Amino acid sequence: MKKKIVIVSTYPENGSKNIGDRLITNKLKAVVSSFGDYDFSIIWRAAPWDSVKEEILSCDHIFFACLAIRRNMHLNEYPYFEKIIDSGVPFSIISAGTNLGVNYLNTVFDDTSKASVLLLKRANESAVVSTTRGYLSQEFCRNQKLDHFNFSGDIAFFDNSFHNKKFVKNLPIKKIVVSDPHRSQIYENVFDRLVSGLKSDFPDSELVVAMHGVNPEIEFYCNENGIDFIDIYKFPDSGLNIYDSADLHVGFRVHAHVSALTRRKYSYLLEQDGRGCDYGLTIERKISVPCYPSLYSKLTVKALIKRLLGKNLPISGPVSISPAEQLLAIINADRQQGFEKFVGLERQIEQFHDLTRQAVGQALGEPS
């Protein structure tokens, strides 16, 4: 009889439809399947307990796909996590990631509520295996004394079809794929500067925008400016294959960055928040630039109350276009060198691939 695996997914099927979250789920399923034939159930991380209870209590192992460590994750992202711990069903956390307030005034590691940290401490003691996907996330775990968490890299890098493939320099840039920004209302100026710069610097290259999630503001911008775009989120299991035909990715989505690098395509990222920062600190090449929103500089009574309550200050908009210009400068300098910077980066990507498979194998009790 086949063992039953439950994957707790971050994919918002009825929300933004972020295709990167679907990628995470599919890759975890692929890693588990590389060890044998299993039955899978995929459940939403914030579903009502009564709707997932039967699946959870009847399974052999639960995997949290890229556990989203957030400020109030015990209430919002994972309201039934404690019930899983109490159930005694074996569970593992693969490629946990943070979205820490890297542009806030408080120290970066104080961005998570005490109740959520207590939940993580229980998980730290109970999980069969726990890994993180980035150096900042791993440092958060070390800071909070979550000593059973180990770094593995993002599970989204796992792909046997590209394993052992190498980066090659001096490839012609015939097609550029630009990934769309989160919070497009405050990033439209940055997006405009980035796209305009790429069209100017690569006038003979095809340029297309990949919509990783529902993003009406950017779709409107593209329609108004005659820019081709594809709603890849409408094809959750195949949309990311757009990076098969790309020669260069530039943009805002971390899993566009991962998808391109996995395929050994040149890729550059504008880091919008703590998630992007995590990748920027982890990838061993300078191929990303921080592009964070600013805080309101005027300390109003309302803002002061927020700070006294331990909440983050609101952000202002629009975001400065300077990071887009910085990234364009890097790309143009690297272009003069034939993108030689990427040669050898496959070694780190293969390390992520191997560490992830080892962790999943350990969780399943299988040799890796």
Short précis:
With 368 residues, the protein is an alpha/beta fold. It folds into 2 domains: 4-160 and 350-364, 3-Layer(aba) Sandwich (Rossmann fold); 167-292 and 319-343, Rossmann fold (3-Layer(aba) Sandwich).
| Helix/strand/pairing category | alpha/beta
The CATH topology of the largest domain is: Rossmann fold
Strand content: 15-25%
**Roughly what is the average pLDDT, rounded to an integer?**
93
Helicity, in percent? 25-40%
Explain how this protein is built.
The model has no long low-confidence stretch (mean pLDDT 93). The chain has 368 residues and is of the alpha/beta class. It has helices at 19-33, 49-57, 81-87, 114-126, 135-143, 184-201, 216-225, 254-262, 274-282, 301-308, 322-336, 346-364; strands spanning 4-9, 39-44, 61-65, 68-69, 91-98, 130-132, 149-151, 175-179, 206-210, 228-230, 248-251, 266-271, 288-290. It folds into two domains: 4-160 and 350-364, Rossmann fold, CATH 3.40.50; 167-292 and 319-343, 3-Layer(aba) Sandwich (Rossmann fold), CATH 3.40.50.2000. The longest helix is centred in the last third of the chain and has 19 residues, at 346-364. It has twelve helices and 13 strands. It starts with a strand and ends with a helix.
